[in-house]
């Protein structure tokens, strides 16, 4: 069966399933007795305005995203259960160019409907909470958006002013919870009333992340303390089943006040029957949570309670299935399963959509989608120099420089009111599009002049989020030693030796901006590509300087990077979650866009903060795309000359050391 046939078959099954022809009921619906009812909770989270299966940065369709696609599997999933309800877990308002278009270009007048709300209103949501990104455009904008929803919003830890002595006395912006009076059908087909309580939480860190919008206007209470205060009241008011809408990930097992990722602790509160989570852009149950303390992938539980995290951008629909049993006039949970069901699958490394978009959802937002396409194709700033990565592996590079500049700009702003405000900020960035298996056209290439939002995809391929680590000058040097493993060791006095170790991924070749240094290729690599110390006596990184002086090994530095590197990705020595001092709510892409808008005209010219050590009589060869010939003469810090054609359409170049 070819890919088209496979998709056609899946589409047929999806359509037939939605019509009820091939639906298999969940075991709870099959087994429910006369005093039992199967309740399915469907969750979306971290939609970030992704309605269409379309990547506006790359300006092309993307089958891994889009509420319109998630909506189609909702139809199937509702049909698998006797009773179902749909809720959202926050972060729906910001995160892609459609959100920015509405906020920065079109605006929101009283009575306007935001496109994400238009889409959600078509699907029968019964409740949502707030995520941290709801505040990115300010409170006035947020409340104009929320006013258009056909469903309530709850948030128990967002206050209008100072915190009260008793959380129940807090003056909240919205209801801490709602109790919905619903009717469920039991296993015998009889209908019964059930009261379902829904309580929501937002990370307290919004007071730092959006201080400009919130300082003096709002405060946040610790998530766990808010839950401990309000859940008993929900029980007092007759809630049979309580579901926590926790826009918070699964963090440390031990409680600390104002945890950002507190879902494990929330699940442990007596009275909460199930918890939907998000914020972390992961899917639970799933292999990403193998070995995580407090969660059970097989049982689908968090802190012993039924839990789910439904991916991001509409990639999955989170499902919690509860078997409810009637005990007198009360209901209790006697069984559960959880699942994060994707809207696509990977076949031989290729994305294959499981469903097509739901027409009603796309139609509701079609005009906003078309306006967004016009927006992303329109210049939002200018670049005074070309942004290209043809020589990013052999010299300081403009495409990496702009990322470094944006990260420093952002982190300095984020930390200016924190204990780290006086610590120098460096920036680590790597070239993503650097040929290799991607071919001779696989390079960043944005000409000087107008720069559009979609060009950001050429600058930053991945949806990483910005993070910052606190390390020493000695750690900086080891970080650079690891990066320098991309180069082969060369023999002094020998011409035309291969420079690049092709087994070393370019995304692990970090340049650290804010310091200057040289690389001695006569030395063997200190670390392997896996981060193993293989040559303890080798030191390729020479003459590391900060502010013109030799770097102090004990001096503290904040280094702006991404969540992959800060979390230990690439196995860089001394870098890991224990060094993280700031986890941003924003993607690196979004930060670059904001930086361009703020600057108006960017000057991404590389500052040549690193070079190779001179090695007399020695030259090296490397390959790049043939279009690099247009830029070779302007590369700073190194002399590059053509050296003939390479294989597969690449061109060879020579550097004389």
Give a written overview of the molecule.
This protein starts with a helix and ends with a strand. β37 and β38 form a beta hairpin. The strands form ten sheets. Strands 8, 9, 11, 12, 13, 14, 15 and 16 form an eight-stranded mixed β-sheet that branches. It has a six-stranded mixed β-sheet with strand order 6-5-4-1-17-18. Strands 28-23-32-26-33 form a five-stranded mixed β-sheet. The protein folds into two domains: 341 residues, Purple Acid Phosphatase, chain A, domain 2 (4-Layer Sandwich), CATH 3.60.21.10; 278 residues, 5'-Nucleotidase, C-terminal domain (5'-nucleotidase,  domain 2, Alpha-Beta Complex). It has 16 helices and 38 strands. The protein is α/β, with parallel strands linked by helices and 657 residues long.
The percent range for helix content is 10-25%
Dominant shape: elongated
Task: Supply the helix-strand structural class.
Answer: alpha/beta
Rg estimate, integer Å: 27 Å
How many DSSP E strands? 38
CATH topology of the largest domain: Purple Acid Phosphatase, chain A, domain 2
Beta-strand percentage range = 25-35%
CATH architecture of the largest domain: 4-Layer Sandwich
Distance linking N and C termini: 54 Å
Total discrete domains: 2
The CATH superfamily of the largest domain appears as: Metallo-dependent phosphatases
Stretches with pLDDT under 50, minimum 5 residues:
1-21
What is the top-level CATH class of the largest domain? Alpha Beta
Oligomer: single chain
Average pLDDT figure: 91
């Amino acid at each position: 069966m070819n890919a088209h046939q496979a998709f056609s078959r899946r589409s047929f099954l999806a359509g037939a399933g939605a019509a009820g022809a091939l639906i298999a009921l969940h075991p709870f619906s099959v087994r429910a007795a006369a005093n039992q009812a199967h309740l399915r909770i469907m969750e979306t989270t971290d939609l970030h305005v992704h309605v269409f299966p379309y990547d506006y940065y790359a300006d092309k369709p993307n089958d891994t995203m889009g509420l319109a696609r998630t909506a189609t599997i909702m139809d199937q999933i509702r049909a698998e259960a006797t009773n179902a309800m749909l809720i959202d877990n926050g972060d729906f308002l910001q995160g892609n160019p459609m959100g920015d278009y509405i906020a920065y270009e079109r605006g929101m007048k009283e009575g306007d409907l935001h496109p994400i709300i238009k889409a959600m209103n078509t699907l029968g949501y019964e409740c949502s909470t707030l995520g941290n990104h709801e505040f990115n455009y300010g409170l006035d904008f947020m409340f104009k958006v929320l006013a258009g929803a056909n469903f309530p919003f709850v948030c128990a830890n967002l206050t209008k002013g100072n915190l009260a002595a008793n959380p129940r006395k807090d003056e909240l912006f919205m209801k801490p919870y709602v109790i919905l009076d619903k009717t469920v059908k039991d296993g015998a087909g009889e209908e019964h009333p059930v009261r379902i309580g829904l309580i929501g939480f937002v990370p307290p860190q919004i007071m730092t992340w959006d201080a400009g919008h919130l300082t003096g206007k709002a405060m946040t209470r610790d998530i766990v303390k808010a839950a401990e205060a309000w859940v008993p009241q929900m029980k007092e008011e007759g809630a049979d089943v309580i579901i926590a809408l926790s826009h918070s990930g699964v963090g440390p097992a031990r409680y600390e006040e104002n945890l950002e990722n507190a879902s494990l602790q929330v699940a442990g509160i007596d009275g909460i029957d199930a918890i939907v989570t998000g914020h972390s852009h992961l899917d639970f149950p799933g292999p990403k949570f193998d070995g995580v303390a407090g969660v059970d992938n097989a049982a689908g539980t968090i802190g012993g309670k039924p839990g789910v995290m439904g991916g991001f951008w509409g990639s999955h629909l989170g499902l919690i299935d509860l078997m409810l049993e009637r005990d007198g006039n009360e209901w209790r949970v006697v069984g559960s399963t959880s699942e994060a069901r994707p809207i696509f699958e990977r076949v031989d490394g290729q994305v294959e959509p499981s469903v097509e978009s739901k027409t009603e959802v796309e139609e509701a937002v079609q005009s906003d989608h078309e306006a967004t396409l016009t927006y992303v194709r329109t210049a939002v700033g200018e670049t005074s120099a070309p942004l290209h990565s043809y020589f990013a592996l052999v010299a300081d590079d403009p495409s990496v420089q702009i990322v470094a500049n944006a990260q420093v700009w952002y982190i300095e702003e984020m930390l200016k009111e924190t204990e780290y405000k006086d610590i120098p900020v460096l920036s680590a960035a790597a070239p993503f599009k650097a040929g290799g298996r991607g071919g001779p056209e696989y390079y960043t290439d944005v000409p000087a002049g107008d720069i559009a939002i979609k060009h950001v995809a050429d600058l930053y391929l991945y949806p990483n989020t910005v993070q910052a680590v606190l390390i020493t000058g000695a750690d900086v040097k080891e970080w650079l030693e690891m990066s320098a493993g991309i180069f082969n060791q060369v023999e002094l006095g020998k011409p035309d030796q291969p420079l690049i170790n092709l087994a070393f991924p370019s995304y692990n070749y970090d340049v650290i901006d804010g310091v200057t240094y040289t690389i001695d290729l006569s030395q063997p690599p200190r670390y392997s590509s896996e981060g193993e110390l293989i040559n303890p006596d080798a030191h390729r990184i020479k003459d590391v300087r900060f502010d013109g002086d030799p770097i102090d090994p004990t001096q503290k530095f904040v280094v702006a990077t991404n969540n992959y590197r800060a979390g230990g990705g690439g196995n860089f020595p001394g870098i890991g979650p224990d060094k993280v001092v700031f986890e941003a709510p924003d993607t690196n892409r979004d930060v670059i866009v904001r930086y361009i808008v703020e600057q108006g005209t960017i000057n991404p010219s590389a500052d040549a903060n690193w070079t190779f050590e001179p090695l007399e009589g020695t030259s090296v060869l490397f390959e790049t795309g043939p279009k690099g010939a247009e830029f070779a003469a302007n590369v700073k810090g190194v002399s590059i000359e053509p050296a003939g054609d390479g294989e597969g359409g690449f061109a060879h170049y020579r550097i004389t050391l």
